């Protein structure tokens, strides 16, 4: 008996709590966290499909590019007209945007007028609809007395799915919201609007932008909040947009920056992906709609359908006797009898139950208090499911943004709508267009034409010729190296190579094995040159070098060997023989006294003699460019040019001896000596009989332009870098092309752009004003194809430069312009060299290899390609192969020594 009483008590309590029977009946609509996470994951997968060109056609979430590339930054200004078309009425607005000093300091003023759209136009012809729009615009201009003496920019909010090919060009995909206008599908909506404006009065209007209402919503918020990068519409329909990384959008060319994506998420589920979450009421809603099988997600969440969902639930419950004592009125059976406004009224905090009773009475029902509670709970469950579904998909968007930007946490704002958004899109577009023009004008001098590069080529050629003549000073020095031959692969034996060119000194032991290039063995050790040695006395410097050599010979166990040695000395030297070199001037931070004007080989020999521990036969002193050429020539016999493209830049090449006037007497004597030696020893190798016809010339081409010959391509930024350098007026070509200066040129450009308000919101930091802060290595990092803009921003932040995504794009463009010009100028100089060699040899076509060393060529992501493309363009009759040096100039010095010892000249 007790059990029976307990059961009776239980059921009486159920009757007292009508929400529980609703919970049981609508169990499928009450989504728990795991289900919402699952829906969010499914939506993320659909987003990815929509962004891919391979799967977009089949994607239910279309992910339409809008060509809106930036949100407002507060500097927008101007006066705009705006049209807002998306429902039974549309608006015409005049929007005035006042410029501020950053976000929230500007302001927007609006005047607007709403115009009804006659019912017949919703199903009529497209031209009729847009004629009505144009007539209303004309009426607005007349009423507001807006002058047409100047062209007015116009923004168009068009709240229907469109496929954009530009910000002001988009084709209608399909109508929604009860529109069934004929003749516009797949046609350019903006062009249709322009034609209608042209037909309706003398209106001087330029349509600059067409956007979806979701995008307009985001832009409205973006003007007040810099963190707003998502727009959300939840009303009669529903949609969302957000700023996606351009590199992920297959349907748009380019990979720099971001673009707003109109997700058109109302179609989520059209491919059946939400089938297991659809209730019988959702299926009934879809079947009775004008577009069955379409906009499934929208039918689950939007205001157009929530009221009808509630009606269908109440109808079913009443038929089952769970409501109204089983009574079903004719009004309750009528589609549309319950609206979303009714749902909102029933859920009001204070008056909800009172409103519910009134609404149900209006449906010819006689609800009990329990019925009113149950109906109110039905409304809550339906609308709560809607908000949960929207939140799940919004979470997917936010998670994608966070993942794109590699943030652990993220602050972002989501906004929900205003008519001024389209005007702000236009204002942003106008701001970006003005900035784009100013940035282009700034970078224009760096973009050299084919004709300009041909002039540089001809000037380099003239510099080469002048330097070969022994008639006064020349900007291009053309220093003889007294290297007459490149390796032929027969070199063998052990040679010591010493390499001094910067803050390090390198000692190498190179063992050449005859005929086995790949088996050449190189041992080396690197020693630091302390600053106090670099800037002390010459005796201290060369004593330090002798000490390093002594240590290396101990390390190799060859202290007692009398080895032939080559000395790579990467400073300008005048040579009168292979084993003599008089230092012209120090560079690269060296200031050792009593060295300039002295033979560096003799200074090294004296230091070795003072040490009295070992002996060396110093056969050759060579420039690093010559060493690079020789090193590569050992691998490729066609290598007769050496190029350094790194901290500095230089070229050497094999020139015809007859063209080197400054050494003519000397070489004639050498030729006679060679002939006499051959005659005296008949048993020597036949190669001794060959005539000396070539000598490697160290061009020192970095001095091109020191005579003013490059003034027409020198920019103000180059002039400032030159003015601030340690050698103003010297090494003009090198200052345009080498790693020592490119970063500083970029800094000067960035400083100018920032001062002009085009970068970093016009904030010139102390960091940006610091000379040398922007190292050339940053160009290589920033220009890497694998580096996303987020990483560019990170690099800038390391330098104390906090910029936007748009700032990062401009910084990358500046780096690209400066480094591309450098590569092109080197290419023009190289074209002059190879064409000269071709003409020297009277060839129609020259095939030759260039040995290359230097971090700029090897590490910069685009320098080598641009250099090689330029040579091909400017020297079309030369087939030039570029061979990066593996061992560098040190091995080359050993090879020069080997060649000289085996084939003395």
Automatic annotation (TrEMBL):
GO MF annotations, alphabetized: ATP binding; D-glucose binding; fructokinase activity; glucokinase activity
Membrane disposition: Peripheral membrane protein
Pathway: Carbohydrate metabolism; hexose metabolism; Carbohydrate degradation; glycolysis; D-glyceraldehyde 3-phosphate and glycerone phosphate from D-glucose: step 1/4
Composition skew (Basic and acidic residues), residue ranges: 667-682
Keyword Metal-binding: no
Keyword Transferase: yes
Domain Hexokinase N-terminal per the UniProt entry, residue ranges: 22-222, 439-634
Keywords: ATP-binding, Cytoplasm, Glycolysis, Kinase, Membrane, Mitochondrion, Nucleotide-binding, Repeat, Transferase
One Gene Ontology cellular component: mitochondrial membrane
Family under the similarity heading: Belongs to the hexokinase family.
Name of the protein this chain belongs to: Hexokinase-3
Species of the source: Takifugu flavidus
């Amino acid at each position: 008996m007790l059990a029976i009483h307990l059961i009776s008590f239980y059921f009486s309590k159920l009757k007292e709590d009508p929400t529980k029977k609703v919970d049981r009946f609508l169990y499928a609509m009450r989504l728990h966290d795991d289900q919402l996470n699952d829906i969010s994951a499914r939506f993320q997968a659909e987003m990815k499909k929509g962004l891919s060109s391979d799967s977009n056609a089949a994607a239910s979430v279309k992910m339409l590019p809008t060509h809106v590339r930036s949100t407002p930054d507060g500097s927008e200004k101007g006066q705009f007209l705006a049209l807002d078309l998306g429902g039974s009425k549309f608006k015409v607005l005049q929007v005035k945007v006042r410029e501020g000093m950053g976000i929230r300091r500007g302001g927007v003023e609006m005047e607007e007028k709403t115009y009804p759209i006659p019912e017949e136009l919703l199903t009529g012809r497209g031209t009729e609809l847009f004629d009505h729009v144009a007539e209303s615009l004309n009426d607005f201009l007349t009423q507001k007395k807006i002058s047409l003496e100047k062209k007015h920019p116009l923004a168009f909010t068009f709240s229907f799915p469109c496929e954009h090919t530009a910000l002001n060009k988009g084709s209608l995909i399909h109508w929604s919201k009860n529109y069934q206008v004929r003749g516009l599908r797949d046609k350019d909506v903006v062009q249709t609007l322009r034609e209608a404006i042209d037909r309706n009065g003398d209106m001087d209007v330029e349509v600059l932008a067409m956007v979806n209402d979701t995008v307009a919503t985001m832009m409205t918020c973006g003007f007040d909040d810099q963190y707003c990068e998502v727009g959300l519409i939840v009303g009669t329909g529903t949609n969302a947009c957000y700023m996606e990384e351009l590199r992920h959008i297959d349907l748009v060319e380019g990979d720099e920056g971001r673009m707003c994506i109109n997700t058109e998420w109302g179609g989520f589920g059209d491919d059946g992906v939400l089938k297991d979450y659809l209730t019988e009421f959702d299926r009934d809603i879809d079947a009775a709609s004008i577009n069955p099988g379409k906009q499934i997600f929208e039918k689950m969440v939007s205001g157009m359908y929530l009221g009808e969902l509630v009606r269908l639930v109440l109808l079913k419950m009443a038929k089952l006797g769970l409501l109204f004592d089983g009574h079903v009125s004719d009004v309750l059976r009528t589609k549309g009898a319950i609206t979303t406004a009714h749902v909102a009224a029933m859920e009001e905090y204070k008056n909800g139950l009172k409103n519910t009773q009134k609404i149900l009475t209006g449906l010819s029902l006689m609800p009990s208090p329990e019925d009113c509670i149950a109906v109110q709970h039905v409304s809550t469950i339906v609308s709560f499911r809607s908000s949960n579904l929207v939140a799940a998909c919004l979470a997917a968007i936010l998670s994608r943004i966070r993942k794109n930007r590699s943030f652990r946490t993220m602050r972002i704002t989501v906004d929900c709508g205003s008519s001024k958004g389209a005007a702000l899109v236009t204002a942003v577009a106008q701001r970006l267009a003005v900035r784009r023009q100013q940035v282009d004008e700034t970078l224009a001098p760096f973009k050299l034409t084919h004709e300009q590069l041909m002039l540089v080529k001809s000037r380099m050629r003239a510099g080469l010729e002048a330097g070969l003549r022994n008639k006064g000073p020349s900007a291009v020095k053309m220093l003889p190296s007294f290297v007459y031959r490149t390796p032929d692969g027969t070199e063998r034996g052990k040679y010591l190579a010493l390499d001094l060119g910067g803050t390090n000194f390198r000692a190498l032991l190179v063992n050449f094995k005859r005929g086995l290039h790949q088996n050449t063995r190189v041992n080396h050790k690197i020693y630091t040159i302390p600053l106090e040695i670099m800037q002390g006395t010459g005796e201290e410097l060369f004593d330090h070098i002798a000490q390093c050599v002594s240590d290396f010979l101990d390390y190799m166990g060859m202290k007692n060997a009398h080895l032939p040695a080559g000395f790579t000395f990467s400073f300008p030297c005048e040579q009168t023989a292979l084993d003599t070199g008089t230092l012209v001037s120090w560079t690269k931070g060296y200031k050792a006294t009593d060295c300039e004007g002295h033979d560096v080989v003799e200074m090294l020999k004296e230091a070795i003699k003072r040490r009295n521990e070992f002996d060396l036969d110093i056969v050759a002193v060579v420039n690093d460019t010559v060493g690079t050429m020789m090193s590569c020539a050992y691998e490729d016999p066609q290598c007769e040019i050496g190029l350094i493209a790194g901290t500095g830049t230089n070229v050497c090449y094999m020139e015809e001896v007859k063209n080197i006037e400054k050494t003519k007497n000397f070489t004639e004597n050498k030729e006679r000596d060679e002939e006499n030696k051959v005659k005296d020893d008949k048993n020597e190798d036949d190669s001794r009989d060959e005539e000396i016809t070539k000598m490697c010339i160290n061009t020192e081409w970095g001095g091109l332009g020191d005579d003013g010959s490059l003034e027409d391509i020198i920019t103000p930024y180059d002039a400032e870098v030159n003015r601030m350098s340690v050698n103003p007026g010297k090494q003009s070509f090198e200052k345009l092309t080498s790693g020592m200066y490119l970063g500083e040129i970029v800094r000067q450009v960035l400083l100018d752009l920032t001062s002009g308000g085009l970068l970093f919101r016009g904030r010139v930091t102390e960091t940006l004003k610091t000379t040398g802060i922007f190292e050339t290595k940053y160009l290589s990092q920033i220009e890497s194809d694998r580096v996303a803009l987020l990483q560019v921003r990170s690099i800038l932040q390391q330098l104390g430069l906090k910029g936007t995504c748009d700032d990062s794009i401009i910084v990358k463009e500046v780096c690209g312009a400066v480094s591309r010009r450098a590569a092109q100028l080197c290419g023009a100089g190289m074209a002059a060299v190879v064409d000269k060699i071709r003409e020297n040899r009277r060839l129609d076509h020259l095939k030759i290899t260039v040995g290359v060393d230097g971090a700029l060529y090897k590490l910069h992501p685009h320098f080598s390609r641009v250099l090689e493309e330029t040579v091909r363009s400017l020297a079309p009759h030369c087939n030039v192969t570029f061979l990066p040096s593996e061992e560098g100039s040190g091995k080359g010095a050993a090879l020069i020594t080997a060649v000289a010892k085996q084939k003395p000249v």
